[in-house]
Structure formats: structure tokens, C-alpha cells
Amino acid sequence: MRRDAAGLAGLLATTGVLHFVAPKPFDGIVPRSLPGSPRTWTYLSGAAELAVAGAVAHPRTRRAGALAAAALFVAVFPANVRMAADWRHASPAKRAVAFGRLPLQAPLIAWALRVAR
């Protein structure tokens, strides 16, 4: 597997597993506007990340998986915005994490699009 694809698949798989192993932090950033339980959305997004990781890992589905990864990174941006808003008065370390995630989405999207090529 290409190294960039392996890295992307690994990142997605790790994050996907974390949604199931430690769901509480993810529950807290689910946008309130979504219907239903935040935990449901946490599990759904974790499952989506695992499915996309599998697609990126396999050469026959890599292009579609990488495009799905780019879409996923766009889709989770509102949760990152919520985290930044919620943590704006938190400790400096938490603020750095929350606000640091916002510009991180652009290189993640670019990485996924590069893998799709």
C-alpha cells in the first residue's frame, strides 16, 4: 500500500476506534442541531471512519474511499467549530487543541484528495 494511503487509513481507523472506546469526548462536540442522541452520532461517525479507512486501505476502493474521507473531513468541521466555541474559555491547552483542529481540516482534505489521485 502506498505510504500516504496507509497513513490516511491508519488515522481514520484509529479515530474510528476511539469513537467506540472513548465516546464521551465525541458526544460533547456533536452539534445540538442534529436529531437524536449525541452517542448515536458518535457511533455512526466512528463506523463511517472505520468503513472509509477500510476503503482507503484496499487498492480497488482506494479512490472512492479517499474521496469519502475528504467528504467526511468536511462533514465533521461543524463539530470542530462547536468544540472551539465550547472551549473558548477553557484552559490554554484545551483552547489550543480546539482552535488548532479548525485549520487542520484543510490539510486533511488535501491529503485525502492526494490519495484519491
UniProtKB/TrEMBL annotation:
<keyword id="KW-0812">Transmembrane</keyword>
<keyword id="KW-0472">Membrane</keyword>
<feature type="domain" description="Methylamine utilisation protein MauE">
    <location>
        <begin position="6"/>
        <end position="78"/>
    </location>
</feature>
<dbReference type="InterPro" id="IPR009908">
    <property type="entry name" value="Methylamine_util_MauE"/>
</dbReference>
<protein>
    <submittedName>
        <fullName>MauE/DoxX family redox-associated membrane protein</fullName>
    </submittedName>
</protein>
<keyword id="KW-1133">Transmembrane helix</keyword>
<feature type="transmembrane region" description="Helical">
    <location>
        <begin position="64"/>
        <end position="85"/>
    </location>
</feature>
<dbReference type="Pfam" id="PF07291">
    <property type="entry name" value="MauE"/>
</dbReference>
